[in-house]
Design goal:
By secondary structure, the protein is mostly helical. The chain has one domain (about 20-70). It has helices at about 20-25, 40-55. The two termini are about 25 Å apart.
Length: about 70
């Protein structure tokens, strides 16, 4: 499965506009599965990052290699 990801704002009429760059990546016909995920608030991403750092704080020294993947 090849996902095409983009950010878009829902219009008051309930319409979503697919940006031209994203539309160009889609097949011209066929069935699609659409999943709508509301954007996270800015403070949510900050909280998530802080909780991840706290989680890694108690790692064994030999696990330090994985810290660069965050």
């Amino acid at each position: 499965m090849n996902a095409v990801e983009f950010n878009v704002e829902l219009s008051s009429g309930g319409w979503l506009h697919i940006p031209d760059e994203a539309a160009a990546q889609l097949p011209k016909d066929g069935l699609f599965k659409v999943i709508i995920m509301p954007a996270l608030a800015a403070d949510d991403s900050e909280w998530r990052s802080a909780s991840y750092r706290q989680f890694l704080r108690d790692d064994a020294p030999e696990d330090a290699i994985y810290d660069s993947l965050a």
